[in-house]
Design a protein that fits this description.
Helix 1 crosses helix 2. The protein is about 20% helix and about 30% strand. It folds into 3 domains: about 55 residues, Structural Genomics Hypothetical 15.5 Kd Protein In mrcA-pckA Intergenic Region, Chain A (Roll); about 90 residues, Pseudouridine synthase I, catalytic domain, N-terminal subdomain (Alpha-Beta Plaits), CATH 3.30.70.580; about 80 residues, Alpha-Beta Plaits. The longest helix is centred in the C-terminal third of the chain and has 10 residues. The chain is an alpha+beta fold. Strands 7, 8, 9, 10, 13, 14, 15, 16 and 17 form a 9-stranded mixed beta sheet that branches.
Length: about 250
C-alpha cells in the first residue's frame, strides 16, 4: 500500500474541531477517554488522518466536516456563566441564544473566558478551527477591556503591570494599561491583554490593592462589541467572517 502524502493529512483533534463537534482541547480529552476511533481502532492524540479516506467516529457515530458554520458576538450581562453548560445549574451564554439559534444544528461553544461577574463581548462559534486560532496563546490575540477600579493607581505601578507580574507562580505576558478617566474614589482603565488567564485583570489589580469594581470586554482581535446592547447578540455576516479569517491568516484545511 502506498503511503498517503503528508500534505493530505491533518491531526485528528483539528479534524474533530472542523466537524464542529467541539474545540481542539476538548477533542483531546475525548481521545484520551477512548471515545474516538479511526477506522474502528482507538485514536491517539496527535494522530494524523486523511479526511478523504479515514473514517472517524465519536461514541460509535461517524463525524464529517460541516459545510456551514455560524459566528456570534454576544454582549454578556453580569451573572451569566461563559460556558456551554454549568454543573451548578446557573444560566449560561447558550441560554441567551437557545430561542434564536438552532443549537442542535449548530453546537456553539464560547471562545475564551469572561467570568460571571464581568460583562461584555463573548464570541461563540461551531467552527473549531477558528476557535482554536483565537484561543491559542501563540497567536497572542489582543483582548481589550474597560475596567473601573477603586482608588487611583499611579502610572509607575501600572507600568509594572504592563511589564508583567507574578500571579500564582506564573508571570503574566506584557500588556498595555491606559488611564481613561478618574473620579473621586475610582479610576477607569483600558486594558489590552495578549493572553487569557482566569480572572487575570482582577488578580492583577488586587495585587496592587486597587480591586476591580466593573469589568467589560469590548474587543477580541478584529471583533468589536460596538453598540450591541447588553444581553443581545448578532451573527457575523460573510464580510465580517472573511475579515476575521484574514486577520488570523486562515488558510482553511
Amino acid at each position: 500500500m502506498n503511503k498517503v502524502s503528508n500534505n493530505k493529512t491533518e491531526k485528528i483533534q483539528k479534524f474533530i474541531a472542523k466537524c464542529g463537534v467541539t474545540s481542539r482541547r476538548k477533542a483531546e480529552e475525548m481521545i484520551l477517554a477512548g471515545r474516538v476511533t479511526v477506522n474502528n481502532k482507538p485514536a491517539v492524540t496527535g494522530q494524523r488522518i486523511n479526511p478523504s479516506l479515514d473514517v472517524v467516529k465519536i461514541d460509535g457515530r461517524e463525524i464529517k466536516p460541516k459545510k456551514e458554520y455560524i459566528y456570534v458576538i454576544l454582549n454578556k450581562p453580569k451573572g451569566i456563566v461563559t460556558s456551554s453548560e454549568d454543573e451548578l445549574g446557573r444560566k449560561t451564554v447558550l441560554d441567551l441564544l437557545k430561542n434564536h439559534v438552532n443549537l442542535r444544528l449548530h453546537r456553539l461553544f464560547p471562545v475564551g473566558r469572561l467570568d460571571k461577574d464581568s460583562f461584555g463581548l463573548v464570541f461563540l462559534t461551531d467552527d473549531g478551527e477558528i476557535a482554536y486560532r483565537l484561543m491559542h496563546p501563540k497567536e497572542k490575540i489582543p483582548k481589550v477591556y474597560i475596567v473601573k477600579v477603586k482608588g487611583h493607581p499611579s502610572r509607575n505601578i501600572l507600568k509594572k503591570l504592563e511589564e508583567g507580574v507574578i500571579i500564582e507562580g506564573t508571570k503574566t505576558l506584557p500588556c498595555k494599561v491606559e488611564i481613561i478617566k478618574k473620579g473621586d474614589s475610582w479610576t477607569k482603565l483600558k486594558f489590552t491583554l495578549y493572553e487569557g488567564k482566569k480572572r487575570q485583570i482582577r488578580k492583577m489589580m488586587r495585587l496592587i490593592s486597587h480591586p476591580v469594581v466593573h469589568l467589560e470586554r469590548i474587543a477580541i482581535g478584529p471583533l468589536k462589541l460596538g453598540k450591541l446592547k447588553r444581553g443581545s447578540f448578532r451573527i457575523l455576516d460573510k464580510k465580517e467572517v472573511k475579515k476575521l479569517k484574514d486577520y488570523l491568516k486562515f488558510k482553511g484545511g
